[in-house]
Amino acid sequence: MSKCEQCIIRKFSSLRALNKEELIKISGCKTSKVVKKGEVLFEEGDYLNGVYCIRDGACKLTKLSANGKNHIVKFITKGDLLGQRSVISDESVNLSAVAVNDMEVCFIPRDEIMSSFKENSEFSVEVVRDICYDLKTSDDVTVNMAQKNVKQRLADSLLYLHDTFGEDAEGYIKIQLSREEIAGMVGTATESLIRMLSEFGKKGLIEVKGKRIKIVSILKIQNVSDGIV
Amino acid sequence: MSKCEQCIIRKFSSLRALNKEELIKISGCKTSKVVKKGEVLFEEGDYLNGVYCIRDGACKLTKLSANGKNHIVKFITKGDLLGQRSVISDESVNLSAVAVNDMEVCFIPRDEIMSSFKENSEFSVEVVRDICYDLKTSDDVTVNMAQKNVKQRLADSLLYLHDTFGEDAEGYIKIQLSREEIAGMVGTATESLIRMLSEFGKKGLIEVKGKRIKIVSILKIQNVSDGIV
DNA sequence: AATAATATATGATATTTGTCATACACTTCG
DNA sequence: CGAAGTGTATGACAAATATCATATATTATT
To answer: Which of B85, B95, B143 has the CB atom closest to A71's CB atom?
Structure first.
């Protein structure tokens, strides 16, 4: 079993604030596992008894909406921690987590996290800072969802994907989602999304090759997002 | 100056987890003030050096959207704490706070909050629990904003207002907002909102008298929110 | 390789929502 | 009291978006 003290991944999350003893203790009780693309880490309503540290791969956090569509709220990628909110507030998770590519994750039991949270104020401040950041972001997204039209929201989603996953050698965003999934991020009908994607393509904002999308001009997409025509 | 140890309001927020010494210390350095309806507590981008404890009245938290409209994200009312996110994560606030009726608030300096946060784990857990709850709620709202149509969102907003402010003797929701403000909660044009309000009125879901709104049937409004026609 | 299943694309049309114009109601303030 | 300003309401129309139908492409399965 790999040792947390030597794991670089922890440096990317609030786990960086843990001291050596804490890391050794966690090493002893954590479990590692592989999650294949499409597999479910947890579902809306589940209670987690620990947090996941994402060593590789990514998952989507989704919520089933009132009208039966799966909305992708955000993606969790390599280096991120998953499930802190639920563990700390001792509530069920409100989102489902599904792998969007093959993942490698470590599971750290609840008790370890909570004891560090209570005893190591540097760690607790870090954790809270993360959650606060998420809250701020979520409020911003709420406003965008409420006030922007579908075209603007698609621009936002493309920028978010680009930001989160980066580009491959050819400049394509390093994640492949179905049109239905993207529609579920934007909050629109799949057909509408497809039309808008090809519109963006025709206008030279993006290049589409199957499921792969390349942003031609970040600036132009940003202008669309800001409603600058 | 009133004493925090004797103040009942603190029982409604995470401040309930503070011990007597902490409360006495806060009593000595807190300031109280009255904020008149329409006055601004802080604006998007400000740095707060403390948190507000709302002793009476309410304020709206708004954000200016890309298209220039003021979106009301939520209301903060009697008993709530305001500004913890910004203080703990040491970032500027992302929302503006404007009184929607006359308020009485106490201001607790940053240092007091942070020292209790670091030393009193019961308090820090409470604070984080609150922020986690807000995060969960915010994600839920995001999904609703993205997936529901204007009619459903209006139903949600009415239920939220009813929940947050309660009813007066005649059954009207105990807050008076302009049509423009409600439109800014729902994320729609003011004219569309006005039309929909009168549609709700004609269908007997609500009763409207000037700025005062009465929900006739919570159940029916809930059905609208759920898209059950 | 052929077939089935699924995803993507596009047209036609209905519905929803936004915009602009205008009218009316209500407040405020000199 | 009356004028000016603001908020609310409504009609007419335009634009955005959803829905349904269907075609075509892509992937999976045998």
So the answer is: B143
CB contact under 8 A, B117 and A125: yes
Residues in chain B: 229
At A228, the pLDDT band (50, 70, 90 cuts) reads confident
Q: Is the pLDDT of residue B51 over 90?
A: yes
- pLDDT, tens digit, 9 for 90 and up, residues A117-130: 999 999 999 999 99
B121 neighbourhood in chain A, CB within 8 Å: 117-119, 124
A32 occurs within a structural domain: yes
Residues A88 and A165 in one domain: no
Are B139 and A143 within 8 A, CB to CB? no
Nearest to B69 by CA among B183, B197, B192: B183
Residue nearest to nucleotide D9 (CA to C1'): B194
Query: How far is CA A13 from each of CA A7, A9, A31, A123, rounded to the nearest angstrom?
Result: 12, 8, 18, 10
Angle at which helices B150-165 and B218-225 cross, to 10°: 140
Read off the tokens for A218. 């970040």
Given this model, what pLDDT does residue B93 score? 96
User: Do the domain assignments include residue B143?
Assistant: no
Q: With a threshold of 0.85, does the pTM exceed it?
A: yes
Å: B97 CA to C25 C1'? 30
Summarize pLDDT for A14-57 with one digit per residue, the tens: 999 999 999 999 999 999 999 999 999 999 999 999 999 999 99
Q: Which residue in A139, A113, A135, A81 sits closest to B84, CA to CA?
A: A135
Give the nucleotide nearest to B149 (CA→C1'): C16
Q: Which of A3-7, A138-142, A187-191, A212-216 has the lowest mean pLDDT?
A: A3-7
List the domain range (segments joined by +) for residue B34: 4-137
Q: Which residues of A touch B144 (CB under 8 A)?
A: 65-66
Beta carbons of B88 and A132 less than 8 angstroms apart: yes
Last residue of a domain, one of A114, A137, A160: A137
Nearest alpha carbon to residue A125 among A78, A90, A133, A48? A133
